Amino acid sequence: MAALAHTPSRAPSPTGLAGPEPRQGTMGLRERKKLKTRRAIRRAAYRLIALQGYETTTVEQIAEAAEVSPSTVFRYFPAKEDIVLTDDYDPALESALRARPAGEDPLDSVRRVLTHRLALALHEERDAVVQRTRLMAEVPALRARMTESFSGAFETLAVTLADRAGRPHDDLDVRVFTATVLAAVREVLLHWAARGHEGDPVALVDRALRALKGGPRI
Q: Could you tell me the pTM of the whole model?
């Protein structure tokens, strides 16, 4: 993996994985309204799920609690699972990764960017991160959808790393490297949630990605 060579990068995330949404001061009126609606839907969903469980919470109930129509919910989130899992932060991940030093080892670049984004998410919306990862660990439908939802982060990472390495976007080495990194992050988040969110997930992700370079320490 470390063999991916860098060429000078062109000048952005998780990834998104779970970073804070864009600040409203940097957005136009239409975008601010959309962001407000997305947040209202998410908060309503988390509130209802905490009270009555994931399976028994319907999109209609979420829409009513968020004071929007069910069609509006589906316009923002194609499926109920997406309310929990949808990642809005790929552009921030991309820009952060492209901004890393051109000669930096790709695994180090990805590790620094992902741990930074996760730390920021925990600082700004820890409760949401905890609830999201708990549901991912407990609800089979969400785990299945999580694998699908990682496809966007996968393409963002793979294309960005390929560009930085001067390789085609379909380069097999780059895509295997990207898939391995995301699989490691997914496993860490599920591990953290399954153990009652004990410990520091940022440190766990950092440790897992370091292990990819040299193998597990025994």
A: 0.76
